[in-house]
Amino acid sequence: MTQDIIQRGLYYEEFVVDARYLHRPGRTATEADNVLFTTLTMNTQALHLDAAFADAQEPFHARLMNSMWTLSTMVGASVAQLTQGTLVAQLGLGDITFPKPLFAGDTLYTESIVLEKRLSSSRPGQGIVRIAHTGRNQDDTVVATATRSVLVRTLPEGTPAQ
To answer: Distance (Å, rounded) from C-alpha 131 to C-alpha 113?
Structure first.
């Protein structure tokens, strides 16, 4: 008889403080990603939509990827490995920076470090984990950082940790 194995994120007990997770594969940004995300979110910034305008602007002379796309993709890259099926709620994002731009054609690679964790004092069977996400391009240049606090489930009774 075969054993069913379901891909999932980590339960509270499985998060290790100071552990670093490298989320692969990376995601190559495209012009279509930029235009679609920018228009879906009603962001009319010409630096994302207007090639002629962006080409004339110092210092980059090119359209920039929407920074919210970069943030969303960076966090999204961590889901399968960290929170898929174990997340109760995202509690907050903070310390968000975009030290360098991302451009169409760049590949975004994400890593996450578990900063701290604690059991919830008001929600039995759940814990709070704070995670630092870093996004780098193909040249290893940091293009985005953020911290995220999540509420995750603890291991179900009798379930062994992975």
So the answer is: 6
Between CA 40 and CA 22 the distance in angstroms is: 29
Report the chain's mean pLDDT, rounded to a whole number.
Answer: 95
The predicted-structure confidence for 130-140, as pLDDT tens digits, reads as follows 999 999 999 99
Q: What's the CA gap between 78 and 85, in Å, rounded?
A: 13
Cα–Cα separations (whole angstroms), residue 135 to 40, 52, 67, 103:
23, 28, 11, 13
pTM score, two decimals?
A: 0.91
> Could you tell me if 143 and 137 are in contact, meaning their C-beta atoms sit under 8 angstroms apart?
yes
The strand pairing partners of 135, in sequence order, are: 110, 144
| Domains detected in the chain | 12-153 (3.10.129.10)
> How many Cα atoms sit within 13 Å of 82 on the Cβ side?
32
Q: How far apart are CA 74 and CA 85, in angstroms?
A: 18
